[in-house]
Amino acid sequence: VFEEKHFKYIIVGGGVAAGHAAMEFTRQGLHPGELAIISKEGVAPYERPVLSKSYLFPNEAARLPSFYVCDEDYKKKRLLPQWYVNKGIELILGTEVVKTDLASKTLTVASGRIFRYGTLIIATGSEAIKLTDTGVQGADAKNIFYLREIIDADELVKGMKRKYKGKAVVIGGGVISLEVAAAMRINGFDVSLLYRKPWFMHELFTPAIASFYEKYYSDKGIKLIKGADVVGFETASNGELKTVKLKNGKALQADIVVVGIGGRPLTALFKGQVEEEKGGIKTDGLFRTSVPDVYAVGDVATFPAKRYGDMRRVAQVDHARKSAEQAVKAIKASEDGDFNIEDYDYLPFSNSSYFDLSWCFYGDSVGEPMMFWDKRTTSTTKPKFVTYWYHDGSVVGAFLEGGSAAEERGLAAMVRLRPTVPKDELARKGVSFATAL
Ligand code: FAD
Questions:
Q1: Smallest Cα–Cα separation from 13: which of 83, 84, 93?
Q2: Which among 41, 59, 99, 396 is placed 20 to 30 Å from 161, CA to CA?
Q3: What SS3 class is residue 60?
Q4: ipTM of predicted complex
Q5: pLDDT band at 211 (very low <50, low <70, confident <90, very high)
Q6: What is the pTM of this model?
Q7: Ligand 1 pocket residue status of 40, Cβ below 6 Å
Q8: 3-class DSSP assignment, residue 407
């Protein structure tokens, strides 16, 4: 029988949100021994987006410790494992929480050990949706990979070594698939990118934005197969993958497959104990759940988006960081009897980079999209363009390819203001409207 261990604060999950919550706790004032982070992963919190980008590169690939969670000014303060030790934060790694009882404030981990908390932060993130879940035939074949955690990335890197420069099929038209397809191409693979929709990044990209990136991908030698529905995989007698079968009867040869068809928030541990909404754990603007002393942050939280008047669940790294900081501020403020803390005001942000391109997006993609190229862009300069989403006389969202860090900050500030501007003025100013603020 294990002795129970008690912590004032426990964070379940040791990803991006957990790391940033720990950092915020130390800013707000934390005593040694007060905080524990229990994580299924065997490593301290790190910046997950690296896994589909430089982690997969053939040269100078990113490896820990270079991408442990770090503060907003990037690289200034990186939270190495020793940082947690120095702060008296207990990192309980390689440990899965298998049962929770929010009424008695206890967590049970796989070994049977029980932890008791005063305040709990749920930061379990998401898991990758698997083709085996949907019963796709042969989906358990060797050399089919998913990407969520560092161990997945390590498996993929090994697979890439085994199948060096072979035929790769990347399934899915979302942000992770695009990044992985680019990384595999850089590694010399013959890459096909398959997606169901008529263009990739269908949720965010307009047809005009998509056509720029799709041409770029084609020019890099990546085959784009649109409207593709994968129905099965054929394997050789040794279990190795041979082909990817499509609904239209076609089959593609494949040595290696990477599937990026979305994520699912990990909320099962709390089912029936806490209110849910839109597939996530429902919170208020301070990330408090329906259960006292229990907070939820990052990918698992469905929170009120103040500026849009609706409830949203956001699986983006920027939100993971900011929601974690907000929750910790709220916890500390409630202990100090300060109830004036402002609700979270989330401005949607996403970004990505492939080859020598990089884009960012802020705001809402509703209304009429208007795209403008930087007039100085030529066939020999780096591409630079903007798309505004124009709604009721205002700019409510903006997308920028090829902007500098300062221009991206300006873009955020502009969208946050939702500026009212006549359409012809916006058209006349083009890119400079985004970058002038
Ligand atoms: P996570 O970072 O996923 O952390 C959750 C942690 O909880 C994990 O360590 C997990 O092992 C642990 N856990 C889960 N269940 C248990 C349990 N029962 N017991 C113990 N531990 C548990 N977003 C962007 O904005 N830009 C990008 O470019 C981008 N790229 C991405 C690339 C990849 C490959 C992936 C997978 C995601 C990417 N994202 C990106 C999304 C972003 O990484 C997530 O939104 C962010 O990591 C969410 O943070 P989180 O802390 O909520 O969850």
A1: 93
A2: 41
A3: coil
A4: 0.99
A5: very high
A6: 0.96
A7: yes
A8: helix
Phi and psi for 335 in degrees, rounded to 5? -65, -35
Instruction: Determine whether the shortest distance from the Cβ of 15 to ligand 1 is under 6 A.
Output: yes
97 close to ligand 1 (CB < 6 Angstrom): yes
Q: Summarize the confidence of residues 191-202 as an average pLDDT.
A: 97
Question: Which neighbouring-strand residues pair with 60?
Answer: none
Task: Give the tens place of pLDDT for each residue, 154-171.
Answer: 999 999 999 999 999 999
Q: How many CB atoms lie within 10 A of CB 413?
A: 12
Give the model's pLDDT for residue 224.
98
Residue with tokens 């991408």: 67
% of the chain at pLDDT higher than 90:
90
Nearest ligand 1 atom, CA 147: 34
Contacts made by residues 226-232, CB under 8 angstroms, sequence distance 24+: 226/195, 226/197, 226/198, 226/199, 227/195, 227/196, 227/197, 227/198, 228/194, 228/195, 228/196, 229/196, 230/131, 230/136, 230/171, 230/194, 231/136, 231/137, 232/136, 232/137, 232/138, 232/139
Structure-token match 């929601």, residue found: 323
Return the structure tokens found at 320.
Answer: 């993971």
CB-count exposure of residue 436 (10 Å: 0-12, 13-18, 19+) = exposed
Locate 209 and state its tokens.
């934005």
